[in-house]
Hints:
By secondary structure, the chain is α/β, with parallel strands linked by helices. Helices cover 30% and strands 28% of the residues. The strands form three sheets. Strands 6-7-8-3-9-10 form a six-stranded mixed beta sheet, sandwiched between helices. Strands 2-1-4-5 form a four-stranded antiparallel beta sheet, with helices on one face. A four-stranded antiparallel beta sheet has the order 12-13-11-14. Helix 6 (163-176) links the parallel strand 7 (151-155) and strand 8. Adenosine-5'-triphosphate binds next to strand 2 and helix 1.
Amino acid sequence: MELVFDKIGKRYKNKTALEDVSLDLNYGIYALLGPNGAGKSTMMNILACLLKQTEGRITLDGSDISAMGKEYRNILGYLPQDPGFYPNFRGYDIMMYFARLKNIKDPKDKTQKLLEFVNLADDSKRKYKEYSGGMKRRLGIAVSLLNDPKILILDEPTAGLDPKERIRFRNIISKIGSDKIIIIATHIVSDIETIADRVILLKDGKVIQNDSPSELVDHMRGKVWLTEMELTAAQDHVLEHTDSNIVKSGDKSYLKTVRDEKPFPDSYECEPRLEDVYTYYFDESGVNGDHADDKI
Ligand SMILES: Nc1ncnc2c1ncn2[C@@H]1O[C@H](COP(=O)(O)OP(=O)(O)OP(=O)(O)O)[C@@H](O)[C@H]1O
Ligand SMILES: [Mg+2]
């Protein structure tokens, strides 16, 4: 299965939300990483055929998805950023409603299995409005899996979740299977760090990097610096420099800076992580340039 974005562009009146986005996706888990307003939801909505692009086309095995109609919808699962389920429906009812809407063969059986899969079987008779944030997201994932989609789109599936629910989310995604293209839009690096096969960095509507997490991290070698510093000095520094953050270890505090150049004479290099990739490319201070033309 090959899903190709061919020079996709999207303009809303006078705002360019996506520009010249070209991608080639095969089976695997893709993280679409970018800050607020980068264009992630716009991209997901175009991929779900809910929004029409201004330029370019998306093809699945050579066919334009906008011309595939039902054939495409049948293999698509989409969890929007805000799914807007009926608050007074029980979890079970929501599943059955969408199962019928999607013409699922054995809706009761499928609903039951998926509720168990996302660990909601015991809460299926409770109303959606009584669900916690994590339960709501898990129900959303179950709904998006009803038709056993080949392409699964999850827009900010972990927003507002506590650490335990984030782990649950990662476990669920890892269990879904490898015979799909799964695209997860997020700005939370730790949620995709261990599960994504590839990470696509989106900035101001453009794809600025597209690589495996390990290659992206490797590219940061020699750019991540630790500097031992008094806590108050470090606090002052991070207010002014968005490429830096504070790391505490025991009673010592350090400044961690992601920068091409050594920030202080006594700074030393440290092992980069995926979160440093995010800091490097999405730092707003401009100290590292915008890296839009970097090539790994
Ligand atoms: N219907 C719209 N009309 C005009 N501008 C829009 C519309 N929808 C989105 N935009 C703009 O397009 C840009 C991309 O928005 P989008 O929602 O795709 O970003 P995002 O990466 O999903 O952000 P977030 O992380 O906040 O969800 C933003 O500048 C946004 O203001
Ligand atoms: Mg969004």
